[in-house]
Amino acid sequence: MRTLTARRIVIVCATLAGLLLLVVVLSLKFGTRSISLYDLAALLFHAATGRSDQISSDFRLIILDIRWPRILLAMIVGASLSVAGASFQALLRNPLADPYVLGVSSGAALGSILSLIWAEQLPGATPFGAFIGAIAATAAVYFLGQRGGELDSYTLLLGGIVTASFLSALIMFLMTTISGRELRGMAFWLMGDLSTPTPLSPAWLFLVLILAVGAIYTTSADLNLLLGGEQEAMHLGVHVVRVKLVVFLGASLLTGLAVSVSGAIGYVGLMVPHLIRLLFGSDYRLLIPATALGGAIAVVVADTLARTLVSPTQLPVGAMTALVGAPVFIYLLRRSKT
Amino acid sequence: MNPAERTAEQAAPSGPARTLPPEPPRVLVDLASYSYAPEGGAPFFTLEATSFEVRSRELVAILGRNGSGKSTLLRLLAGTLAPLSGRVKLEGLEVSRLDLRTRAQRIAMVQQETPLLFPVRVWEFVMQGRYPYSRGLRFETEEDAAVARQALVEAGADPLRGRWMHKLSGGEKQRAVLARALAQQPLLLLLDEPTLHLDIAAQVDLLRRLRRIATDRGHAVVVVTHELNLAAEFADRIVLLDRGKTLRVGKPAEVYQQELLQQVFGTLLYVEYTARGTPKVTFSGADTD
User: Fold this and answer.
1) Chain A closest CA to B102's CA: distance in Å?
2) Mean pLDDT value across chain A
3) Peptide bond before A312: cis, by omega within 30 degrees of 0?
4) What ipTM goes with this model?
5) A190 within a domain of the structure (yes/no)
6) Nearest to A221 among B123, B129, B131 (CB)
7) How many CB atoms are located within 10 Å of the residue B5 CB?
8) Which A residues in the span 229-248 are in contact with B, Cβ-Cβ below 8 Å?
9) N or C, which end of chain A is more exposed by having fewer CB within 10 Å?
10) What total of structural domains would you count in chain A?
């Protein structure tokens, strides 16, 4: 009769953090130009000790200016999407919920495009637009998914898919009618891509990530009970409305953050929480931090593959995650029907 | 034994009496009514003013046809609905005004369905009953574990504790759900048609457990059920509802009158009595029309 302890959470998270470190090092090493582990170690040592003049300018460009920022983004995006997915699954009581499948990512994408059109100069306009778009899409899907006053699992998924396709059509419309330099890379960005420059510095992104994940984490014990239905949770003393509001805003913020940085990377929010549940159980007190780390690992791996598989050409990372994620979605869908 | 020890022992008597709660929980339903109405429209269902009491160690069954207001009454008792008029009190406090946590420490509800989204073990599930007692990120303490273990034993779910909830049979699952409710250490235990999907053996087993839990642990237990004979056998008192009206409150023998039951349930029923004086409802298979 093992109960969850803080110790177990620390052990699991430390293990995952170790794995993340390993993945990051490998991702720094591999690319169009592979760098030996020895050179990499020397470079990291010099960079860490502040002697960057000792690093060859080639290496500095490739590792510190190109690969490292991209890996950093991949980690932030992966953690955001995965925690958003796990949160939506509890909020909507649907194991197949994922920001991409539900159309929340499309809402965020539309929001950031609109903000680019209307308020390009304002700093932070894109992430804010993405956040508002994500909130609107989540609210829309939440109401579309109701049937007879209750959330219906399949109605919700269909509502999400329809919302996503409607919003994609709007995005297409905007992209073809509005010409401008900022829309050049947008097709690539829409597939989910980490190579475009970000509107906010990684430090800001990280701060928002920590705040949103932290807010959701404070409700993790409540989310465990919310999985059994709102009535059940209320009978056990959960302030359902408050919890739902925190999770709704937190998950929308995370989706907006991820999309404004990287476009719509799909299925990460679906696959990672499921895998973590399979490995460590479904207690949200462990699931949230483990999912954040797992998501970071997953997107770093996916992006490294996207960079290297058909090198020197690059794939959008969203294509990589969809290649794996869509079959997983079908598998989970079929399993949930039985 | 020195005198000091003796007085200490007198102050806190040992033995079985110590396991009983210090004061008997008691529910008072005083002319409570409720009405569902669309905004500004005429009500489409009204539970008319009803009054009864539930004492500690008592098992009360709420009977009536579908749509007679049983579930509404249960929700009034649970405090999730506030009565439009009258009061529902638990140990002198209005239940709908208690804050959620306090209420969950005093009232436990076993609902008809307990949906699960992700696989969870019986042990973890029962631990959820400790939620209203924990704080912050809510890691369960040794005391929580001890209470949960006790609840598992009382509900007869102890052998199931390592199993997955979704792999249990109907009867096993109901015992696990009951264990979680007991882990809340409630003064009042409410059950909404707990025997619904159970076979007869599991039904009898569940009611026996509830009877024993009420008697031994001093809980007040209220069960909504369609099982007239189980209610007659195990309940101390019956609340009989018909289309929102409380027709009768009393001991099974007082409530189970043939004409009354025929009228309420709208079918031909016969009331007989067992050797112990317990009413028994039977019906004829012959076409009487």
Assistant:
1) 8
2) 86
3) yes
4) 0.81
5) yes
6) B131
7) 9
8) 229, 231-232, 234-239
9) C
10) 1
- Mean pLDDT, range A226-245, rounded to an integer: 91
Contact criterion met (CB below 8 Å) for A314 and A187? no
Model's pTM, two decimal places? Answer: 0.86
Q: Which residue of chain A comes nearest to B123, CA vs CA?
A: A1
> Is A228–B117 a contact, with Cβ atoms under 8 angstroms apart?
yes
Question: Where are the alpha helices (H) located in B142-199, listed in sequence order?
Answer: 142-154, 170-183
Closest-CA residue of chain B to A89: B117
Determine the Cα–Cα distance for residues B240 and B73; give it in Å rounded to an integer: 11
| Type of residue numbered B72 | T
A1 has a chain B CB within 8 A of its CB? yes
Q: Which two tokens stand for residue B270?
A: 């016969």
B109 shares contact with chain A (CB less than 8 Å) = yes
Residue B53 contacts residue B28 (beta carbons within 8 Å): yes
> How many domains does chain B fold into?
1
Q: Identify whether B71 is part of a domain.
A: yes
Nearest to A93 by CA among A270, A256, A223: A223
pLDDT at A32: 76
- Put simply, the answer to whether B131 touches A93 (Cβ < 8 Å) is no
| Cβ within 8 Å, pair B127-A3 | yes
Q: What is the mean pLDDT of residues A221-247?
A: 91
Which CATH number characterizes residue B194's domain? 3.40.50.300
A52 within domain boundaries:
no
| B174 CA: distance to closest CA in chain A (Å) | 15
CA distance A158 to B167: 29
- Domain assignment present for residue A42? The answer is no
For residue A152, the domain's CATH number is 1.10.3470.10
- CB contact under 8 Å between B115 and A89, yes or no, is no
Cβ-Cβ pairs closer than 8 A, A with B, add up to 85
Other CB atoms within a 10 A radius of the CB of residue B72 amount to: 22
Smallest Cβ–Cβ distance between B131 and the set A217, A218, A237 belongs to A237
Q: What angle separates helix A125-144 from helix A153-177, to the nearest 10 degrees?
A: 140
Residue B10 included in any domain: no
Helix (H, G, I), strand (E, B) or coil at A102: coil
The closest CB to that of A237, out of B103, B116, B139, belongs to: B103
Residue A322 in any domain: the answer is yes
| Strand, helix or coil for residue B268 | coil
| Minimal C-alpha gap between A6 and chain B (Å) | 8
The dihedral through the CA atoms of B153, B158, B159, B164 has a sign that is: positive
Q: Do A221 and B100 touch (CB under 8 A)?
A: no
Interface check A214 vs B, CB under 8 A = no
H/E stretch holding B248? strand B245-250
Dihedral sign, CA of A240, A246, A249, A250? negative
Residue B140 within a domain: yes
pLDDT of residue A338: 44
Q: In which domain, by residue range, is B121 found?
A: 21-250
Angle at A176 between CA A130 and CA A169, to 5 degrees: 55
User: Does B161 reside within a domain?
Assistant: yes
- Give the Cα separation of B149 and A140 in Å (integer): 44
The two beta strands, B188-192 and B220-224, are parallel
B104 vs A2, A236, A283: nearest CB: A236
* Residue with tokens 């170690």, as numbered in its chain: A41
User: At residue B169, what are phi and psi to the nearest 5 degrees?
Assistant: -75, 170
Domain that holds residue A104: 69-337
Chain A residues touching B144 at Cβ < 8 A: 3
Q: How confident is the model at residue A64 (pLDDT cuts 50, 70, 90)?
A: confident
B100 touches chain A (CB under 8 A): yes
